[in-house]
Amino acid sequence: MIEAKKVQAFFDRLAPQWDATTERNDAIIERILDAAGVRAGADVLDVACGTGVLIPDYLGRDVTSVTAVDLSPKMIEIAAEKFAGEPNVAVLCADACTARFDRLFDCIVIYNAFPHFAQPDALIAALSDALKPGGRLTVAHDRSREAINAHHAGMPDTLAADLMSADALAAIFERTLTVLSAVSDEHMYLVVGTKA
């Protein structure tokens, strides 16, 4: 069973090297952000934001605001330093499953992080409540499900679970959202739902 305190400590240790070791697939990221509905004027919630890897991508699309949340104080500290001069970016160290936000969002994105959440059902329900009507919740990885599971294979089960099939995640989405897309192929993993 995933333990939040162990996940937090794990990512605190990784935070100083995170930006130097993070690989980007810009073409896949663009596809993810398109599917997520990230566009000019949107209010975005970036869940498990890490050091803010996607924040420049959101800002490059002229969003109105980015709220970036992560469980790791060290990750959030770095993100806060990197975007201190951005008035439309707010960072928050919190558990996204229980956090309370001061607004509703057009787009909520969980990028390259979903296997580290202990309660996927509760997370999706909580984030669905944080969406504006017509808003989109997106869970995405820029690699295949098989690659993600192989990456986490050596980790203790207190840090990561297998990434469920896109169809299984879509079934969880359907409890609170209308599923727009469920893709799991050799390039990416993507589930998108919208709030009525």
Please give a structural write-up.
The protein is an alpha/beta fold and 196 residues long. It has a single domain, classed as Vaccinia Virus protein VP39 (Rossmann fold). Helices cover 35% and strands 24% of the residues. The protein has eight helices and seven strands; from the N terminus they run H-H-H-E-H-E-H-E-E-H-E-H-H-E-E. Strands 3-2-1-4-5-7-6 form a seven-stranded mixed sheet, with helices on both faces. The mean pLDDT is 96.
In whole angstroms, the N-to-C terminal distance is 33 Å
Main-sheet strand order equals 3-2-1-4-5-7-6
- Taking pLDDT < 50 over at least 5 consecutive residues as the criterion, the unreliable ranges are none
Number of discrete helical segments: 8
- Residue-averaged pLDDT: 96
Q: Count every beta strand, where a strand is a DSSP E run of 2 or more residues.
A: 7
What name does the CATH topology carry?
A: Rossmann fold
Specify the CATH architecture: 3-Layer(aba) Sandwich
Order of helices and strands: HHHEHEHEEHEHHEE
- The share of residues in helices is 25-40%
% residues in beta strands: 15-25%
Q: In CATH's first tier, which class applies?
A: Alpha Beta
Principal-axis shape: globular
Largest sheet: 7 strands, mixed
Helix vs. strand class: alpha/beta
What oligomeric arrangement do these chains adopt? Answer: single chain
Query: How many domains is the backbone divided into?
Result: 1
The CATH superfamily label reads: Vaccinia Virus protein VP39
Rg over C-alpha atoms, rounded to the nearest angstrom: 15 Å
